[in-house]
Records
---
Amino acid sequence: MVLWGQVLGALLVILVGYLCLPGLLRRRKPQEPPLDKGSMPWLGHAIAFRKNMFEFLKGMRAKHGDIFTVQLGGQYFTFVMDPLSFGPIIKDTQRTLDFVQYAQELVRKVFGYQPTEGDHQMVHSASSKHLMGDGLEDLNKVMLNSLSLIMLGPKGWSLDASFWHEDGLFQFCYNTLFKAGYLSLFGYTKNVAQDLLQAEELFMKFRRFDLLFPRFVYSLLSPREWLEVGQLQRLFHKTLSVEHNLEKDGVSGWLCYMLQFLREQGVAPAMQAKFNFMMLWASQGNTGPTSFWALLFLLKHPEALQAVRKEATEVLGEARLEATQFFTFKLSALQHTPVLNSVMEETLRLAASPTLLRAIQKDYILKMANGQEYLLRQGDKVALFPYLSVHMDPDIHPKPTTFKYDRFLNPNGSRKMHFYKEGKKIHHYNMPWGSGVSICPGRFFALSEIKLFILIMITYFDLELMDSDTPVPPMDPQRWGFGTLQPRHDVRFRYRLKCME
Ligand code: HEM
Ligand SMILES: *[C@@H]1O[C@H](CO)[C@@H](O)[C@H](O)[C@H]1NC(C)=O
């Protein structure tokens, strides 16, 4: 008995030593960025980081300046905070920084998907073909029909739609965009009413997964939540299975292209379902929340709403529905909305907070814009967090926390693309989609669908906040670094269809 205790104790010491030793022994070498290991062995700064990444990085920047290395859960991350120095990392001309390998680890854990060779390239080819250019025009039509179906019901508008409806704005936007986006990309069956019910049910499961997601990624779930995530994953795999796919018509060209590639690679059906789950997540996790922020900012800024409405009337004419009609819409109008485009850029500046991560494959010299050179160590990760270092930089964007709907417009009404830091023109002045090899391949479709939704909301509907004095809710700090932020609580609003009596 006593002996066992000693053996276990010794094992524990060895284990802890093994985990902590690299951290304890690590010293800053000449030419390396400032190193901050934190006070906890192995964990380093993980607790503060997970609690509030934005505040943590702000503190580190104040302490160490524009580049520093921190320990987080046994791994070392070098954060580069000077956007004038992003170029070499994003372009990676020396080919020493790797995105794919790190992303694959995450994908395995979160979606159960085991990537195959060439996946990353394939997703980007499929997206260039079907989520941009001509392919996007087709998808926009499908999206318009889906939005009609969801917002008006399968038979076109009924009298019911012309009464006031009250809802949470976040809930409403996320629910609508999710269902429309899901059905447009993953297809319909012959029974549309059934499809709508199924999409509604899937959204509820999706939201549950979404709420657990940040702590799941950080391995902070309670045992019960852990079980729940497992159940949700299995449910998604089943709902998005290959057999169910076969029953569907009108699966998007985007998904068909990708699934065909996987079949040709000999990827098993069960693994294809996991791939579908990953794509559901990538395509639906950010658009709903982004639409929420855009509509909320418009409702809180009457001058912005008025400008967008004016532009909408110019490109679309007056919109009024007759009984049993669907939305009609000149989709080409989406190309002629500089004011709404600026609203979207501004919304994403304020609400999208991605982290860009690259694994350092061999020791690497990073030359900063000020000429200073730093040695980045093989095996570490290099990380960018543009929300803090770009979006909220008052030099690039004066009064950075204020919503200015025309921030991205020139005085003559064209798109503004010239921004400066320290008097130098800056290329990366807004980075909601990431950048370089990992840039979001769905960004053009995302913008189209959100713009379509907003144009429908402001032309076909009356809408207002229940309490016009209600402040913009604070961001949920758990979601820093995970794409579009979510509000800490919802905001009540009401809407009703404008229609011909
Ligand atoms: C406002 C909405 C959206 C935002 C803010 C957004 C943002 C992002 C960001 C920041 C990444 C890069 C992640 C990284 O570097 O690891 C990403 C990746 C991705 N996004 Fe989006 N996204 C949006 C909508 C969409 C839509 C609608 C689709 C597809 C229909 C989509 C498909 C993807 C895919 C497939 C990837 C992974 C690409 C890869 O592996 O390189 N996204 N997105
Ligand atoms: C509008 O103004 C910007 C700079 O303010 C300029 O670069 C652009 O060429 C102008 N466009 C037109 C159509 O006049």
---
Amino acid sequence: MKYSIGIDLGGTDIKAGLLAEDGTLSCRTVISTQVNEGARAIARRIAGVIKQVISVAGETDPPIVCSEQIIGIGLGSPGLIIAESGIVHFSPNFPGWCDIPLLDYVNGALKNRAWQAMDIPLYIDNDVNVMVLGELHHGAGVGFDNIVGLTIGTGVGGGVVIDKKVYHGNWNTAGELGHTIVKPDGRKCGCGNRGCLEAYAGARHIVERTQEQIVAGRKTCMNPEQLTPKKIADAASAGDELAREIFSETGRLVGVALTSIAHILNPQLAVIGGGISAAGEDLLFQHIRKEFNKRVMDIPGKMQIVPAKLGNDAGLVGAAMLAYNHKGKV
Ligand SMILES: [Zn+2]
């Protein structure tokens, strides 16, 4: 059996785990990221979790020996990642990071300690790209070759996988599906443009759209103070008309964006994850599909729209799959 190590680098925690080629995840470990300590310190912490996973794997029965069985280590990170050269160009979770050669730093930290892990190749990619890769191989996308993914949470991330490989585009920024324009003169998006999907479906924007309606006099059981997407979803499930409308409109706009994506790329599947997607079939997905089916042409309309399956494990599984992909094992 072959294995690879997946690392999910977040602003709060660094999660790691060992993925067997059959998709089983084990030897999980989590440490805090300590963003303020800087890139080299974070690289040492990443090297530390790699060591921990390898040492736990070595104690299993039979032991998993890294140099023979662990084919690689994959790292998923938010932000704009130059996968080929292992550079984090920019990451919202790491203020001040600009063109950080993270893979070199981690490799350096591994070699400094003369760990046997030092010969295992290391790979990096954007966290949503790896989530889509994880879903393709061990989640909702099993059996497909060409899929896209959206994570609807604080922001709206996107990833494109073509022929089972992450598509990076010419300048490594392909797959920004959250910035598909759904209303040309619409709400202002964090990217500086107007009318992006993220400016409607991102968590803060869902809350703001709801608050604006309440201020405008719409009747609701919701308190406009301390609103969260979860509270809006709960109100919607309890039958609050405004809350239901906010989610149906969100779904409609996701459906509009997916129509363009289907026309451009003809993927077989769109997999949708992230906190907002937990609103589920009744509040969200039926509205996405209804709008998509209304607008899309016949043939690209064959694209299926499904919820992500791997949940919190998607980042780890996907990061670990980077190693298999580079080794040409899948
Ligand atoms: Zn945008």
